[in-house]
Amino acid sequence: MTAAGTATTTNPTDDLKAPSQAVVAAADTQAAASVATLGLIQQARLANLRRAATVAIASFGKESTQAAAAAQAVTATAAASARLSVLGQQIDTAAPTVAASGWVLHGRVYASDLTPQASYTVFLVDAHKNYLSAYGFAYTDPTGYFLLSSDGGSAAKSAGAAAAAPPAGAEPAASASAASGAPVQLFLQVADASANPVLLSETAFVPVTGKATYQAVILPAGAAKLGDPPAELRSVAMPPAAAGTKPPAGPAPGKSSPGKSSPGKPAKS
To answer: Which residue in 36, 159, 222, 242 is deepest, having the highest Cβ count within 10 Å?
Structure first.
């Protein structure tokens, strides 16, 4: 009873709408275990199919229909196993800390055959392909992992100011849109270990305040170079165009410098 004599009531379904962290953690653990088990099954099946393919070639010849069928089975099973591995990596990835007014974009970069790509540079550009330095950049680690983030404060304002000034030659309509105060569109761009841009997302990334978004970025087969990376980014994150060397390792954890990021960790803004 309250002081005024009115009874306080609670909805018995409230607890069902907000499951405890323990329940969610248990569900995640069970999902991870299920995916891991399926992965082991696929790997065992793949090993058996590869042995069968070897026997088919030895028995019927490399050009036989039996050998071709066995090779197709190996290819399909290998692809299924790779997809399970990608899913397993996502489930096993710990949720990053997100500022209450900010957001996080994290994930992994894969080749078309779903092998992780290390030492790639991941960053954000606006609709005019301007590098949004306020959000920094990240090098992928050996598992292809990257993380970009915003605290929702000065970084977002800086990005908006940068987008309000399109590059020379931009169409007047585009310039007017950028200067109108509309939210800045964020597009994910990826450059390979030789500083060649190999992917620019076709759809804008829409941050969710206070949340982390995971993306598995799969590069197209035979990805062609998409011009040159933004000059501002090249000056701080990439080797000279002709060098063909990998990006330098980021600063040690906790010692990031402005505009730079260690592998898989956001730049400080």
So the answer is: 159
219, 110 in Cβ contact below 8 A?
yes
What is the value of pTM for the model shown? 0.64
pLDDT per position as a tens digit, 112-151: 999 999 999 999 999 998 999 999 999 999 999 999 999 8
**What are the backbone dihedrals phi and psi of residue 188, each rounded to the nearest 5 degrees, phi first?**
-80, 130
Q: What is d(CA 119, CA 97) in angstroms, rounded to the nearest whole number?
A: 23
Residue 4 lies in a domain: no
Q: What is the DSSP letter of 245?
A: P
| Number of domains, the chain | 2
Total Cβ atoms within 10 A of residue 25: 10
User: What is the Cα–Cα distance from 145 to 92, expressed in whole angstroms?
Assistant: 12
Residue 197's DSSP bridge partners are 191
Neighbours of 29 (CB within 10 A): 11
Instruction: Please tell me whether residues 120 and 40 are part of one structural domain.
Output: no
